[in-house]
Amino acid sequence: MFIEQFVNALATGIMLGAIYAAIALGLALTFGILHIPNIAHPVFVVAGAYAVAVANGYGWDPLLSGLIAGVPFYLAGIFFYEFYARAFERGGRADTMQALTLFFGVSLVLETVLLLKFGTDLQTVEVEYVGQRLPIGILMLPYRLLVPAAVAPLLIATFWAYLKYTYTGIALRAVAHDDRALHVSGINPTRIKRHAFGLAAALAVIAGAILIITGPVDPFSGRYQLGRAFAIVVLAGMGAIPGTLAAAIIRGVAESLVSAFLNPSWAPGVAFAVLLATLAIKPQGLFGAKQ
Amino acid sequence: MNITRRRFSRIAVAATAGIVSPAIWASERAQAAPIRIGTSVSLTGPLAGSKNALIGYQLWRDDINAAGGLLGRQVEIVAYDDQSSPASVPSLYSKLTDIDKVDVLISPFGSALSAPIMPFVKQRDLFMIGMFALAGNDVVRHNKYFHSGPWGPNSQFNWTRGFFDLAKHAGCKRIAILAADVEGPKIAASGGRTIAQEYGMNVVYDQGYPPTINDFSSILRNIRAAEPDAVFVSSYPSDSVAFVRGLSEIGVGDTVKLLGGAMIGLQYASLLTNLGAALNGIVNAHVCVPEPTIKTDKIADFLARYEPIARSQGLDPLGHYAPPFAYVAGQMIAAAIGGAGSLRHEEMANYLHSNAIDTMMGKVRFNEIGDWTERRVLMIQFRDIKGKDAQQFRQPGKQVVLDPPVLATAELAQPFNKARSS
Questions:
Q1: Count of domains observed in chain B
Q2: β-strands B362-364, B357-359: how paired?
Q3: H-state helical runs in B2-88
Q4: Is A146 on the interface with B (CB under 8 A)?
Q5: Cβ separation B45–A12 shorter than 8 A
Q6: Which of A31, A130, A145, B197 has an alpha carbon within 20 to 30 A of B310's alpha carbon?
Q7: Which of B52, B211, B241 sits opposite A122 (nearest CB)?
Q8: Which of B181, B213, B218, B279 to mutate to test binding with chain A, by most A CBs within 10 Å of its CB?
Q9: Is A108 exposed, middle or buried (0-12, 13-18, 19+ CB in 10 A)?
Q10: Does ipTM exceed 0.95?
Q11: What is the pTM of this model?
């Protein structure tokens, strides 16, 4: 019984962690790499979930429609950054409090827009495999966790490969270090950051597809993801994209084991305690570079 | 200068008229002014699903105004958005009372939002109708508070007594209790624990969980390992969905005869249609279902008028949960004002304490703290749910009433796994 519970809790934690990583990925880009505290990111994820729900109403698969919706969301992300840059980034630096206020306001506006457009009912998607499970020996793997959890590492790996091996990906990583040097090299840092926000919004809609397969959403579901997403980015280390997956899995496993063997009420607290303990030992996060 | 008596009298009359006329004018103006009912509604925030109660208030207002109003005056609803935030509520109700000067208050929706204003209402000695706050007046014990929810007396314990009555009748001895870590579910779970003890049942599993939970797999395994006869769950909408899905994925074991209790959300069309057949066998609290012992022409008429408004606003089209009792809240106000013949809160409260009133949901009497003297919370069991069609939830036979016995339309189908699959 203990072995069955432990193995299943571990598997559930890994799957949940992968899902959390997908949700935090866009934030790892904007906050972790660009150091812009985009607290509106979870609401973009929820907006992405709604877009996927609408497409699903026409019979589209959620993950496929998430990929396709990435294009309009990319454009929305570009427009969003353009507004932020013109309003706040003067001389290449924005006041953090002003930026936080902007993103907080945007998240409230977006929540209200979703509320007015879609109402208060919880939104879900119709997918055949939700409610079913994959039995492997003593393991019982619910498909509504397994399928999104399988997609998440692919998403992260693809994104990491993009950052590491493409010209714009390298420029993206460089802009956070020294955007003046980037300027001297003939690359417009503002264009790169705009592209990064577009990418983050596109990642958000794919994360939204993952989220709504896992469970229903309403316009305010992003609030539950905000603290978790930031904690994962910080635990991983700022800018550590593969580390985001590892950190998220550590968090997911911690939550799942505590739920299984101690008390589910303690799970969020223990997960944050892991973050604090890690930062006490390694302030730069698990995979962050030392300053 | 000499002032004659006649001249002095004329000056005195003119002065008196000058002093009194504003008061007369104000009084006459007040006579024509509408009676204002003040409340807060969660138009935004995580509890925004309850905003369909506003439609109930508005339909009542329209009906009462069409019938000539109250005390010859039209009725007006003054509603603010509390953003589902308990911190917002005290200032909103101060505004309603001190600035808007409303005549009657209706509480926000639910326990978490109502609790912050109970001391204020007691201190100011205000008349207020409670809107679905479980045990809302048990601590403050304000004598001018009246509940529109059919919980009955000692609602902390009795709200879910029906579930435990069913469990006792089915011979259940081992009880599992699971509740979300928020006000309403915790109160229900606390009450459940007390009733289980009263009935000599053994609580073999008793846990809370955070509202951010996505998955109940580990919890369900632990419940299964405890081998309960009955599983009492007190949850909010998104966790209710996750739990029901978990039942399909993990299951809860063959020992369970009865499962459910106080799963909020399983009264709304969006979740009912999404979960579909996964609901079968679950026993849950409800307040208004289309069973022959419950549904009347008045209720049918109300729901028929409610539905198009709800659809246009993207709200729950079924309206079986809060909206009928929002209408009842209005009927209680109308009875109090009409019975007292005034807007004096003392007289209104005295009238409700002394008289039974007719409402859309039946005749109601109140005890000393404003609870209904008779518990009328329903325990229903989902039966024969097929597919995702919403219309089936408007038909009898899909949400059969098991408790209270006087309103029952069926017996408990058990054990749970058999009821689920049949």
A1: 2
A2: antiparallel
A3: 5-32, 53-66
A4: no
A5: no
A6: A130
A7: B241
A8: B218
A9: middle
A10: no
A11: 0.85
